[in-house]
Amino acid sequence: MNKLKISSAIITLSLLAALPLHAQEKRVSPHETVSATIDGAQIKIVYGRPYTKDPKSGEMRKIWGGLVPFGQVWRMGADEATLLTADHDLDLGGTKIPAGSYSLYLQPEENGSTKLIVNKQTGQWGTKHDEGQDFARVDLKKNPLSPAVNQFTIALDKDANGAGGKLRLKWETTEYTAPVAVQK
Predict the structure, then answer these.
(1) Exposure string (b/e) for 29-62, b if CB count within 10 Å is 16 or more?
(2) What is residue 19's predicted lDDT score, i.e. its pLDDT?
(3) Can you tell me the distance from the alpha carbon of 13 to that of 39, in angstroms, rounded to the nearest whole number?
(4) What is the pLDDT confidence band of residue 2, given thresholds at 50, 70 and 90?
(5) Would you tell me how many other CB atoms lie within 10 Å of the CB of residue 125?
(6) For the chain, where are the alpha helices, taking DSSP H only?
(7) For residues 104 and 86, what is the distance between their CA atoms, to the nearest angstrom?
(8) Residue 5 three-state SS
(9) Contact at 8 Å (CB) between 156 and 34?
(10) pLDDT (tens digit, 9 = 90+) per residue, 87-146?
(11) Is the preceding omega at residue 147 within 30 degrees of 0, hence cis?
(12) Helix or strand (DSSP H, E) at 170
């Protein structure tokens, strides 16, 4: 009986000690999984979807150049790092990405040029970007978006002609895109 009490106490203390770490990595945004079959490849992206409004104050936030700073790596969503998984080698914006799982980050610049960062490390909290694990940086095309999008959105769209597709990142009044196809 004493062993049971001691074991319970140890487990309780362990859980209490872990609470501050868990609280730092608590999800604040809803999460979504988008999937598409493009040129026979199964592609899946799992990401957090922050809102334009601050979840604590309800105030509208400036997204590009504010919450998402120019010239710095952004976690591309909320909470855990955004995860891309593909079962075929991909051509993403002219860059060969081998089949597998990757974390995605974004680095927007004030002049409009923006890089999608494909990182080999997975499973980390979104702010834990290790540049040494970067596999590739892909140029994205910036387009104006109207009407404005209140919640960060990622889409994978098949091309209407059946060849390839497009990765779309939408938030506020901006959309970033890159073509996606199976690597031939």
Answers:
(1) beeeebebebbebebebbbbbbbbeeeeeeeeee
(2) 36
(3) 52
(4) low
(5) 12
(6) 2-24
(7) 13
(8) helix
(9) yes
(10) 999 999 999 999 999 999 999 999 999 999 999 999 999 899 999 999 999 999 999 999
(11) yes
(12) strand 165-182
